[in-house]
Batch of 3 targets.
Target 1
Amino acid sequence: MSKNPKYRTIIFYKDYFQKFFIKQQDKVKDKIIWTLELLEELPRIPDTYLKHIENTDGLYEIRIQFGRNIFRIFCFFDEGRLVVLANAFQKKTQKTPKKEIEKALKIKAEYEKEKK
């Protein structure tokens, strides 16, 4: 257990992220966990690891690179300190596929609707 204060708490919404996570190799899982811990513990997260998706209302991507493989986990904030993980995928092209962004936005809308 780390001694660092937590600046954020990460939660999983339904099983969108877990479905992706369980399919990954152990070393990839380790890198994902390391990156998520970074998000919780750093006061300011570098763009290398977390980037706002342009033209969206509060959708972010957590960026993970392992060797030549690039992974993205979509997330959004709830009450500022809570990071809600949505869907994730392995990135194979330069641009993030639009269908993945649309899926993440649907998940975010679903989360917000259920919260009311």
Note: The chain is about 35% helix and 30% strand.
Target 2
Amino acid sequence: MTRPTRIARAAGLCFATATAMGLLATGTATGDTFVPLPGGEITETLGDGTVVNVKLVGESANINPSLGSTPVHRNAWVSGTAEVVTTGNPLKLGKIKPGYVVGCQVNISGGQVSGGTGYSQDWEGNRPSVSGKAGANLSLGPGQAKSFYILDQEREDPFGDSTHTNFNPFRSGKGGVTWKNSTIGLTGCGGYAQARAFVRVEIETENAIEDVTLWGQPFSLG
């Protein structure tokens, strides 16, 4: 079975307001800046007719743009809820994988973007290429970007050993996961920095294995 990737942009109902508030996080302010974000919603129909609805709700970021009193340190605490509903065919397994992409002097909004070190990625044309661990502390230079999943859930395997997974599973046709004050730590970036949420959902039915990815709106880390 093939694994086609389906990508869609987040809904932008509050685009102007959220962008304006995100700009308040730039500079070297000493206090934290709370940034409400609009989240988003998409509905996709898979090859076997299964309909997948993905929502990102209650999204926000609390940003300290000058951790350590230097312009190359930033810290943010991000929160949100991902909700998934599938209809049309029995679900064998669904996996919800929320995460974030962080860029230093890189435009991580829609379309093809590039950085000064030859880095390029079409954020909304591909599934996330994850390179960091949950609770990532990232070190990025100009033109660099990294993505990471925020979940690190410990489970016991059939042999009694503990394993770590980066997803929340569901099988009933409806699933969700909430994260609260997950940390994004960034060092080494002397210019502007941005972050952006994504929710990747893997769907497996009797006749299809496909991905659906919802991208949130970019926001400034300062």
Note: Confidence is low (pLDDT under 50) at residues 1-5, 7-29, 111-123.
Target 3
Amino acid sequence: MKAISTSNAPAAIGPYSQAIEANGTVFVSGQLPIDPSTGEFAEGGVQAQARQSLTNMRNILAEAGLSMQNVCKVTVLLADIKDFAAVNEVYAEFFAAPYPARSAFAVAALPKGAAVEIEAIAAR
């Protein structure tokens, strides 16, 4: 296994890696909507938070030499399922057909009170 780390995404807030590569597969940890330059959540509501989470993911993948086109599976965690459509609009800015497989869940709460957290699995 190889850890993937970049300063262009927020540092892990616990005992985990931004991403791990194993046998050509990159597992990107859940990305909170933290702007790595400020350490704060992106301002502007759930769409701004989703955009920051996906930007963080894109930056981690770039560090691994990959792009969003390498993503095979995405999991979207929402603090409120009513935000599903709004997050979908932003999601469409980052992915093109063929779209990765995806799951989306509403959860009781996310770390630091985030509205969204997004993780992914990518392949070379």
Note: Residues 57 and 101 are 16 Å apart (CA to CA).
